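Example 3.2
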Amino acid sequence: MAVLNDEFSSKYDEFINFYLKEKPSLILVKADGSPVMVKTYPKGKYLFNKFSEFFTYYNEKYLQEKDLDKKKIISEKLIKCINKAISMAEIDTKKLNKKIKEAKTNEDIYSVLIYSDTMNKFVEKS
């Protein structure tokens, strides 16, 4: 994925490291005898898929935007959200998976990201 800047790229890699793991299958093997890699989602498949969908959408929106002020707003929103997703990776994500499963739009995903903190309280939007 082409990304908006180095900071987001680095944070996206960090996000991937928390939310997606690939492990060799114990059963499936390729024709050459090497194991097939199986994706696992330690923090929940819904969280990974919805957050990825959100980040991809806004990253593409950023790359297509011509207005520099709007690009800055999108960039700040993405960085804020990816930092929040990374901080959430350190908590029990069962309740968060329930909330994110109900999210239908990117704005719903944004609300879950911004209004959920590690103590499951509402935080102020900055």
